[in-house]
């Protein structure tokens, strides 16, 4: 019987282990990122090589930076201030051949990817980030984020949901960061109240009828689920949702 050798324990750091995994996934003879890197991204305390072609294909901002005659093209160095090295590596890993997948945008990395996608105008990344954010809980910070990056559908959803039910910390966040969005929430709340009051009047003007109508009111459910943030799936374009 041929003896089975136990697996050899790998030594080294976690970074080294990740590099070994990456090397195993690379086809033999394929160029590494260091070999095709013709520009250097400068994060202040860290740097990384990058392929200018991948950056230019993904972003019109990078394309302008690296156009002939620009300082970045002459020096082959691009300063990155919108993200740290780890966040940018997550973004850069999505640019390689067959690397992109919307499922790779997760709740854990969406904020960093959105900041990069917004600053460098990466359209497909912005759309993927918005689709994910439409499934996450609404907060004042999420509304400020949507307004900053021009995520119209997420912005409308956040305004509507906060007008229906907002917490003190949501109002404080809006007051500190985006007074215009705070006004939009207040106006939407007034619209919803006016609509609700009008519905009550349709049942009659007596106090007792109004009380019955008010106490029996519930948001309409959709597909067996309560109306709310899950209504705003990426495939749903109807606005506004039912009250």
What is the β-strand count?
3
Per DSSP, the total helix count is 13
How many angstroms separate the termini?
Answer: 73 Å
Task: Name the helix and strand elements from N-terminus to C-terminus, one letter apiece.
Answer: HHEEHHHEHHHHHHHH
Q: What can be said about the biggest beta sheet?
A: 3 strands, mixed
Percent range of helical residues: 40-55%
Task: Describe the overall structure.
- This protein is mainly alpha-helical.
- Helices cover 53% and strands 5% of the residues.
- The chain has helices at 14-25, 33-36, 52-58, 60-65, 71-75, 85-92, 110-119, 123-133, 140-149, 152-164, 168-177, 179-202, 207-215, and strands at 39-42, 47-50, 77-79.
- It has a three-stranded mixed sheet with strand order 2-1-3.
- A hairpin with a 4-residue loop joins strand 1 and strand 2 (47-50).
- Helix 9 (140-149) runs antiparallel to helix 10 and helix 11 (168-177) packs across helix 12 (179-202).
- The longest helix is centred in the last third of the chain and has 24 residues, at 179-202.
- The model is unreliable at 4-23 and 212-231 (pLDDT under 50).
Protein topology:
Elements: H1 14-25, H2 33-36, E1 39-42, E2 47-50, H3 52-58, H4 60-65, H5 71-75, E3 77-79, H6 85-92, H7 110-119, H8 123-133, H9 140-149, H10 152-164, H11 168-177, H12 179-202, H13 207-215
At a glance:
By secondary structure, this protein is mainly α. The chain contains 13 helices and three strands; from the N terminus they run H-H-E-E-H-H-H-E-H-H-H-H-H-H-H-H.
């Amino acid at each position: 019987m041929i003896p089975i050798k136990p697996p050899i324990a790998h030594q080294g750091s976690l970074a080294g282990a990740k590099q070994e995994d990456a090397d195993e996934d690379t086809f033999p003879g394929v160029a590494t990122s260091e070999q095709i890197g013709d520009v250097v991204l400068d994060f202040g305390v860290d740097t990384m090589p990058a392929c200018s072609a991948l950056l230019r294909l993904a972003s019109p901002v990078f394309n302008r930076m690296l156009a002939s005659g620009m300082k970045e093209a002459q020096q082959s160095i691009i300063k990155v201030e919108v993200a740290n090295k780890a966040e940018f590596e997550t973004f850069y890993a999505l640019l390689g051949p067959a690397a992109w997948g919307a499922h790779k945008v997760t709740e854990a990395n969406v904020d960093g990817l959105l900041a990069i996608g917004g600053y460098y105008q990466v359209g497909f990344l912005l759309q993927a980030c918005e689709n994910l954010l439409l499934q996450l809980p609404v907060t004042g910070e999420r509304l400020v984020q949507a307004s900053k990056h021009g995520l119209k559908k997420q912005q409308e959803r956040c305004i509507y949901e906060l007008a229906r039910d907002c917490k003190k910390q949501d109002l404080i966040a809006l007051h500190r960061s985006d007074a215009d969005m705070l006004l939009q929430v207040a106006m939407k709340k007034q619209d919803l109240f006016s609509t609700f009051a009008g519905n009550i009047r349709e049942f009659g003007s007596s106090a007792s009828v109004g009380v019955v109508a008010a106490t029996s009111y519930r948001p309409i459910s959709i597909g067996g689920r309560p109306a709310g943030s899950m209504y705003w799936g990426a495939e749903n374009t109807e606005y506004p949702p039912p009250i």
